[in-house]
């Protein structure tokens, strides 16, 4: 039997505001418990929510970026349920009338483009945290997170593999960071994902029964959890069983999903419009203002990189995967006055390699774009060879200053004086009479040997192009 | 001194005939003497009051006083008061010391008024007789056998017995107007959004509105000047220029068109109450107003619609009382569910539980469309009725309550009968309009209220009409014998 996988994702992006969605308390991460929860966040008797305008701007930004409809009128609703870390006994969210409707996100996998539908994105407040450790059988409540603004982005069930889901999620992750509406920090929970997974027989029209997977706080876990779940469901169905609609929790340690609550325990959230908040009206003029703040988006930037810099689709895609990397690359090109492809290689290979090794992100790179550009400039103007440049780059990484300083200090300046190079070649020829004779009797492979010797004697400083040219002339007799 | 109007008290304070400390002590003494049998205060705050009075006296001496500086008042115990127990009439909040002041409280303090204490009320403002309070029923100063009305029954009884010159109340379905009517007072429910709800413990958010209860339209206008106004902390508060509600009081009402909804004068209205109102209306005719029959056809639906919407909102608003962060917590909870169940089961009284259950049911999946959504649609029709009526008339008048004050215990076993006592006031909350109840006479020594309903933000007009009526009548200055 052949199975088709159907996946939809619900991504919670924490909006990067300074204060909470309905109160003035700070949203900074990591403060001591309950120090960033004001009367409103605590749900004290008599308090009222007031909507943070920055949150609306950010949601609009997202809506415009995914080509969605930004609703001229959306409504906050109460989602009622009891939980100790939910201070009011309800969460303020949007239900029937969300702020963003029907957008799309283009993804690329194995060179194929695919459009993933975004059903909706709505604003809501986060709950607090229940802490079960360190309280001797009791539960601690930290309400610092209560009232943190979230944008819940719900996709259509358009993805057909875990890999595709990851590509979509990464694209979304890149987009919200481009828009500067979410810091994307998955460890701190700023970007979280629930996955709805089902399988059906190939050709079948109706969707199969889905399970909702929760607690997926890294790209790797999302992929693993989905793949585990796909196997579980197929296995179950092939053995004649049935998938139960339920919420399942992913256990990363055991790499398995297990039921969290079943349908019988499913909540009736008794949604109704929040009478404390007026409908959210977005005027066209407001939207126009927001439009003006939109940065160049990843897809447009990628196209421009291909055209302006003559990069391949792959290279352009990698370099535009984050706004910081794209900015780094462009500054490097500008500083270096060099070929963009050379710059792209250095950024994508040497720099990315070291960053990866040290588990650093671009903004934390010890080598600035300006330094990188300065070094590439010296390759282009033949001051140093590409080979020596790697030493220079390492020295820059280790904080020894910019390329010119390092070249000067270490005496790495390339030798381009023809006379000097010829002198070295003569020396090498005299010291290697056998190889010279062999070469001249037709063993042309030895050319490389002579190049190597010349470079070695010159301490790597001889200009490789000139060495080639002069060697050819001299060896030929 | 305890019988004086706010204007008279203001003059007396400015002319040093009395200091705020003396005036405050006078009312505190009266509270000590009469408060307990009436049970109209949950908390009296003598120390705080005297401190505030001293501050007010400084202002008065410095010539830096507002119109109400140094004048005492009582706040309904639904308004949060920093450092003072704020119970909302419930066991649930018997241990709750509010850590902040409601906007209304803040504003009265900023005007250097003096808070005497917190007035008794129906639990979470749910009731029409002040019999659902955890702190016991309040008695009507006109007749200790009678209820004072509710939910702002403590405020009304305290003002009627001259234990405070004026008080705040809140009105979700009649909770200011009905007790005002039953205690021979002037009580105003302002337009929804005129008075901030911040710090006012929510019952039904889309209906709740705070307002003054006093002896006369003039007194009410003075306190409204203090407590009304835009508050950025309440998203439903309306941003409009501030008004002086005392300015129009003396305007002539010749030519005023008064609408009398036939639906308010039919079956259900006590015949003697009807006669009292007829006399009052004649008085207004003499003042130059004309009477017109009008129709508010959806009136019969107001009670059922109200008893869907208000409980639905309250079921959600009262979810925060879960025993976790504040308020009553049960002893030794077994687990999370047990903590919720027992804390709420023990903390809430029967009427509150009844409404939470009704509201929870009305919002449940599968019932939402049939109940809550339908009720909201009918609510719009009720609002539409009023809008049309205000094309024809300036002010609508009718009874505040179908009967004078009933006896304590008379309706406690029959919630439906109790709910019907608000039949003429509920529509006004559903439409968000201002409503005013003024003394119109007596039936068997129990007061009768005349209700005035105006268009949005027509408080000044309503108070003007009421003041003109009070200039020609003596009802509002009648004082229950025992408290003269």
Fill in the keyword field for this structure.
heterodimer, A: 477 residues, alpha+beta, 40% helix, B: 484 residues, alpha/beta, Amidase signature (AS) enzymes, 11 strands
Give unreliable regions of chain B as ranges. none
CATH topology of chain B: Amidase signature (AS) enzymes
Rg result of chain A: 30 Å
Share of helix of chain B, binned: 25-40%
Level-2 CATH architecture of chain B: Alpha-Beta Complex
As a percent range, the share of strand residues of chain A is 15-25%
Global structural class of chain A: alpha+beta
The side-by-side strand order for the widest beta sheet of chain B comes to: 4-6-5-10-11-9-7-8
Strand order of the largest sheet of chain A: 2-6-7-10-1-11-12-13-14
Pattern of helices and strands of chain B: HHEHEHEHEHEEHEHEHHHHEHHEEH
What is the distance, rounded to the nearest whole angstrom, between the alpha carbons of the first and last residues of chain B?
11 Å
Main pleated-sheet profile of chain B: 8 strands, mixed
- Percentage beta strand of chain B: 5-15%
Mean pLDDT of chain A: 92
Q: Please name the two chains that share the biggest interface, counting residues whose Cβ lies under 8 Å from a Cβ on the partner chain.
A: A-B, 29 and 46 residues
Quaternary organization:
heterodimer
Number of strands of chain B: 11
Explain the overall architecture.
The complex is a heterodimer of chains A (477) and B (484). By secondary structure, chain A is α+β, with helices and mostly antiparallel strands. Chain A has 16 helices and 16 strands. Chain A has helices at residues 39-42, 53-65, 162-178, 219-238, 284-293, 298-309, 313-319, 323-336, 340-357, 369-380, 386-397, 403-410, 418-431, 433-440, 447-457, 464-475, and strands at 3-14, 69-70, 73-74, 76-80, 90-94, 100-109, 112-125, 129-131, 140-142, 149-155, 191-201, 211-216, 246-251, 256-262, 272-273, 280-281. In chain A, the strands form four sheets. Chain A has a nine-stranded mixed sheet. In chain A, strands 5-4-15 form a three-stranded antiparallel sheet, with no helix packed on it. A two-stranded antiparallel ribbon of chain A has the order 3-16. In chain A, helix 8 packs across helix 9 (340-357) and helix 15 crosses helix 16. By secondary structure, chain B is of the alpha/beta class. Chain B has one domain (6-255, 394-483): Amidase signature (AS) enzymes (Alpha-Beta Complex). Helices cover 38% and strands 12% of the residues of chain B. Chain B has 15 helices and eleven strands. Chain B has an eight-stranded mixed sheet, with helices on both faces. Chain B has a three-stranded mixed sheet with strand order 1-3-2, with helices on both faces. In chain B, helix 4 links the parallel strand 2 and strand 3 (114-119). Classes of the chains: A alpha+beta (477), B alpha/beta (484). Chain A binds chain B through residues 39, 42-51, 78, 80, 82, 84, 87-90, 139, 141, 268, 270-272, 275-278, and chain B through 79-80, 86, 88, 93, 96, 98-100, 102, 197-202, 204-206, 232-236, 312-313, 315-316, 318-322, 324-327, 336, 339-340, 360, 363-365, 368, 372.
